[in-house]
Amino acid sequence: MRWTMNLLLNLLWIVFGGGFLIWLEYVVAGVLLCLTVVGIPFGLQCFKIASLGLFPFGKDIERNKGTPFFGTLGNVVWFVFA
User: How confident is the model over 7-33, as pLDDT tens digits?
Assistant: First the structure.
């Protein structure tokens, strides 16, 4: 029953909520960022956000515990330039 509700909500999100447009924008940004060596890590994260933007229901978001300094630094750079 839960997967059917997630499917229904995801389809409604794609059609009425702008999910396809969000997905398209993040995929284009990811491709452009992957053209540079420095932008590859950010481009890969754009692809992850694109999949979340297309199908947001039924997914969980977890923060990596590995390198908090570089993660925070990456978030600041992302916020300033994106």
Answer: 999 999 998 988 899 999 999 999 999
